[in-house]
Specification:
This protein is of the alpha+beta class. It is built from two helices and seven strands, in the order αβββββββα. The protein has helices spanning about 1-15, 95-100, and strands at about 25-30, 35-40, 45-50, 55-60, 65-70, 75-80, 85-90. The model is unreliable at about 15-20 (pLDDT under 50).
Length: about 100
Amino acid sequence: MLKKFIAVSLFVAVFGFTQLHAQTVAYVANNTDNTVSVIDTATNTVTSTIPVGTAPSGVVFAPDGSRAYITNLDGSISVIDTASGTVADQNFAYQKLTAALSAL
């Protein structure tokens, strides 16, 4: 479990400090119902709710904004395609993350 925590922490450190431009939407992890809400920041309304893994707790974005990476309590990472608002990879697993980080 500690290895998973360290890997997820490194992932957030790598992608969590990317420069993002002004956004018209916000992604909010809903820990108790296993979803992410997409909120229109101009109107403060929820435009969609996307099912993700167990107890999502954090959201970070790819540098180009094309993907949102959601950390889940079960150690998985859900990947949302921000253009379509759909889950691109529901089971982005610990092994993929460590392989990606070791390639850096």
